[in-house]
Each structure stands twice: as structure tokens, then as C-alpha cells.
Amino acid sequence: MSVATSEARNDRGEWRPASKIVPAPINDWPPRLSALARWLFAFPGYLWPLNLFWLGVTLATWTWLTPSLSAMQSLELWWVALVLGRNLALTLLLYGGLHVYLYVFRGQGDAFRFTLKPLATDSGRFLFRHQVRDNMLRTLASAVPILTGFEILTYWGFANGALGYPGLTGGPSGFWGWFVLLLLLGPVIHSVHFYFGHRLLHTRWLYRRVHALHHHNVEVGPWSGLAMHPVEHAIYFSTVVVQWLLALHPLNALFQIQLAIFNAATAHTGFERIKFGGRLAIEGGSHFHYLHHKHFECNYGGSLVVLDRLFGTFHDGSEAGDRAMRERLRAIRAAAN
Ligand SMILES: [Zn+2]
Ligand SMILES: [Zn+2]
């Protein structure tokens, strides 16, 4: 358990958590089944509290804020507008809520905050020279319409039998087993897809034209999460295509899309954890991804399935991790010369 004290900051105002990042048991090979089972059901663990909370949001969205599939058989403005409107509201609530709590009301002060540098309010890197306004515009005017587009295609596809294998007769028990399994795998699919999409974005051509825009955010806040070029939005939310290929029910696809919304927010808070009262603290891969924004050359993937460890780019947040990263980059430069 790390301790956040202002005394632990260096003279640049940076804070490093006392404990290094330890990948979850899902990354262990050979598998340690008892550790895996404990982690699945622990609090906090894989299911509780975050992923089950997000699943609850998805269930509520599907039940009360999504028209019936039969109503969505043909593309009509009213339901497209309804889905777009609720996605705008949901994003404003989550991203705006986190921003207001952490940066306006300063709900936990600087406890667990990685740097004391403020979000930019006069920088040529951002539209309006203002980081939060830039980030908000890119989120609400680009990310939300693009993710809504994926969602509309999903509903239209399921409503018309183009998705979901309508001819399949697996029986109700087969359906429910597959349905629950795909819900359980949602965060894993997100993490793996994010790694490969993100590596692609770090190729020279795409980095310069597309992904550099996201990296203008060196200091990050919640709104930085979806502050991306539209092409990156299309790549990022294309994780739902996995569900188009596998799922028998649109709710699996909706959960996949919403996980991409939720995870981008929690990974960019600028705080290692978010405290709610004295007992509950939420960690959403923030330290893992913060290191990517700070150093660029590490932690390309999600914090759940740490493919970076497999490919040699994992940074665990420690000083030894800093040294290992510098040595790795030196070796790459030496090999290139
Ligand atoms: Zn990147
Ligand atoms: Zn990021």
C-alpha cells in the first residue's frame, strides 16, 4: 500500500507511489489457480468494485435508455438522436464529474497526485490555448459521435439479423453461458485490443499525423482520456468489432463500447487512486498509463493484461523501472547507429 505525503515529492513536485505496479495474476504463466481465483473475487479485485459497477451502468443504459431492437430495425433520426444524447450525457457526467471532484472542488487535495503541475491554461499545444476546453471539445464533438456510430451500427446489425448469428440454435443454456463469458472477458478484450491499436498508433506515420495529438497531454486530467484525433477514436472504439464477431446479444457489444469510455476516464485522472471518503479508493490503471504519457516508450497496453511485459516495454513505476527503460532505449539507439 503506497503512502501519499507531500514530503515524498521531489523538487519538481512529482510524486511516485511507494509500491511498484504488480501485474494481476491473470498475467502469470504457468497459471496460479488459487491466486487467480482470489483475485477474481477479492475486494478490490477483477470483479469488485469497478467492473461490476460499470456492468451495472451498462445494464441500466440497456434497460432504460436504449430503444427496443424492433424499433431500431430501420435507421431513424429519433433513436439515433436519443442514443447520441444519452452518450453525451453519460460522458459529461463521468468525465465532468471526475474533473469537478478532483480539479475544481479538489476533493482529495493533492493526495495521490503524480505531479503538482497544473493543467495548461495558456499553451499553443491546445485549441483555445486551454487544455481542458480542448480535451472537452475533442471528447464531446468527436469521440462521442464516433462511439455512437459504432453503437448504432451494432443495434442496426442485431435488429436486422446481420449480427448475432440468428440461425444458431445453441439452446438457452448455451446462450447464457456464452453471454456471461463474453461479459467477463470484456475488460480483457479491451486491454488486449488497446495494446495492439496503441502500438499501431506509435508507428512513425500514424504517430505524427494522429496520435501526437493525444500526447500533447503530458500532464493529464480525466478529460484527456478521449482527447484524440478522430482516426484514433475510430481505432480505439473498434474493439466492439470483436463482439460483432462473437456476441449473440447486443448488450455484450454495448458493454465493450462503454468499457472504452469508462477506462479512458479512470486511466487519465492524474491521480494514482481516487478516494471516496475514508474507506473506498478506486484505481483504474492510472499509474500504469501515466507512465506512458510521461515517458512515451513504455506501457503501451492496458494495465489489466500486461502485454508490455511480454514485449519488453513494461515499466513498473519504480526507480529500477526508470533505469531499465533508459538502458533499453540506449540499446535500441546503439543498434540503430
Ligand atoms: Zn501513446
Ligand atoms: Zn493516454
Q: Main beta sheet, described?
A: 2 strands, antiparallel
Count of domains: 1
N-end to C-end Cα span? 43 Å
- Cα-atom Rg, whole angstroms? 20 Å
User: Which outline best applies?
Assistant: globular
Overall average residue pLDDT: 93
Please give the order of strands in the largest beta sheet.
1-2
Poorly predicted ranges: 1-7
Q: What molecules are bound to this protein?
A: zinc ion
Q: How much helicity do the residues have?
A: 55-70%
Structural class: mainly alpha
Q: If helices are DSSP runs of H or I spanning 4 or more residues, what is the number of helices?
A: 12
Helix and strand sequence: HHHHHHHHHEEHHH
The percentage of residues in β strands lies in under 5%
Number of strands: 2
